[in-house]
Amino acid sequence: MALEISKTFTIDAPKAEVWKFLADPYRVAACLPGAAITEKVDERNYNGTITIKVGPVSASYKGKVRFEEMDEAAGTAEIVATGQDVKGKGGAEMRLKSRVVEQGPGKTEVTTTSSVNITGILAQLARGMIVVLSDQIFQKFTEAMRKEFGKEGR
Q: Per the structure, how many domains does the chain have?
């Protein structure tokens, strides 16, 4: 099941600081429920895990994250993530394109577009439930990111 998901949010922080945050997979994973970076392979490649729960069904994935493109001046990035269900019952692939744009002093807009392909147990669920789950994860991520910047006095 392939899904296209686009989201936009604004954060009260300068573009350079938002970029620095989004370019750090450890900080990003800390804001994603159930996610962790387990190993840095090199400057662009990381290994990690994520557990996703939809109603009574949960799936844990172990996989790789690769920064395909990182253009700080343009504020654009492209990340590819792949993972396999640890029980061998499916997998997931995601291509995420993001862009950060300064909206004014200390205010930055973040736009993300992702293409997600899921196989296995989660793919058997209704498409609508996956979209709802995506919305919930995105909301939790943006709340955690805003809190992270709040800790730094922003």
A: 1
pTM score, two decimals?
0.83
In the block, residue with structure tokens 């499916």: 90
Q: In the predicted model, what is the mean pLDDT of residues 81-103?
A: 91
CA distance 18 to 1: 31
Task: Record the tokens describing residue 32, joined without a space.
Answer: 């994603």
CATH of residue 118: 3.30.530.20
Q: Are 125 and 20 in contact (CB under 8 A)?
A: no
The tokens for 52 are 């996703």
Beta pairing, strands 76-85 & 2-11 = unpaired
Q: Are 44 and 64 in contact (CB under 8 A)?
A: no
Task: Quote the domain boundaries for residue 45.
Answer: 2-151
